[in-house]
Amino acid sequence: MIESIVLTVTGMKCGGCESNVTGKLNAIDGVISVKAVFKDEAVSVEYDTEKTTLDTIKDTITGAGFLVK
User: Pick from 35, 8, 31, 39: which is nearest to 21 by CA?
Assistant: First the structure.
């Protein structure tokens, strides 16, 4: 099943941070699309729940050095 979620992510300060988060999330099997906007502290993710989980997505963002609220 395809799910879409918008996460509040703090710590992104620039376009480089957006690219970092986007690249790491796009590397996850099952992630379909990602849009990170540092000004809004938001990361939108569309993913296949049969291939990945919300916890994996959150852990990946945290592992990149950002905080998911």
Answer: 35
* Residue owning tokens 């690219």: 19
Q: Distances from the Cα of 8 to the Cαs of 1, 50, 51, in angstroms?
A: 23, 23, 23
- How would you classify residue 66: left for phi > 0, otherwise alpha for psi between -120 and 50, otherwise beta? beta
> For 14-61, how does the pLDDT look when each residue is reduced to its tens digit (9 = 90+)?
999 999 999 999 999 999 999 999 999 999 999 999 999 999 999 999
Going along the chain from its start, the domains and CATH numbers come out as 2-68 (3.30.70.100)
Q: What is the pTM of this model?
A: 0.95
